[in-house]
Predict the 3D structure of the following.
Amino acid sequence: MADLESQLAGNLDALDRRIRAAAERAGRSPNEVTLVVVTKYAPDAAVQLLPRLGRLDLGENRPQQLVRRADLVPEARWHLIGRLQTNKVRMVLPHTVLTHSVDSPKLLERLSQTSGDLGCTSAVLLEVNISGEASKQGFDPEQVRAAWQSYLTLPNLEIRGLMTMAPFTDQPEDARPVFRQLRELRDDLRDRAGSLVERHPVRDLSMGMSGDFEVAIEEGATLIRVGSAVFENIPQ
Ligand SMILES: *Cc1c(COP(=O)(O)O)cnc(C)c1O
């Protein structure tokens, strides 16, 4: 166990240094960036060590796995970062602090409705398909702009910002225009939220993964979702 813990602590320290350096390059405070540790490829034993290492923001892409792991590590704040079907909303919502991957008006409406039923307010990000790839989930940017006022008036929701996935490539710089466009879209939507900005901060940008989080931070990410870089050399 000690080996696993020290390996994990070493990986996280290295990651923290890279996060800090990227923030400094961009003239930002590293405190503006929250590392969401994506645990989908990690064994339970490693996930259970994370709170001890000061890591409380954890992400899963599958609702069922999130619920199971929220039970295993209840002191963590669990983020849902992957596809959510409307029939899983009721199951996962009570365990989730932030749903990053709201990819359709239908899902947004269901989250609003179910939050009302449960007597809570749910924090969400709208996933936007900036790159326009057919394989990617998410709102079309023009769709969000056009329907923005109707989203803002849905009850029991707090729209905290936007999320995107960059195109899959081994060149982090390829992601920069995508991240920049997400930031510009957020700025525009926040400007147009009017007084509803008190209910919907529209501040967060969830962008950047192991291969491109430094570029994402330079372009304004407030939440980065990192899995493989955290669990490098961790035995399964
Ligand atoms: C798996 C996953 C990540 C983390 O990817 P890594 O490249 O392992 O850091 C981030 N976001 C989403 C939506 C994911 O599914």
Notes: The mean pLDDT is 96. The first helix runs from residue 2 to 25. The first strand starts at residue 34 and ends at 38. Residues 38, 40, 61, 81-82, 209-211, 225-229 surround pyridoxal-5'-phosphate (CB under 6 Å).
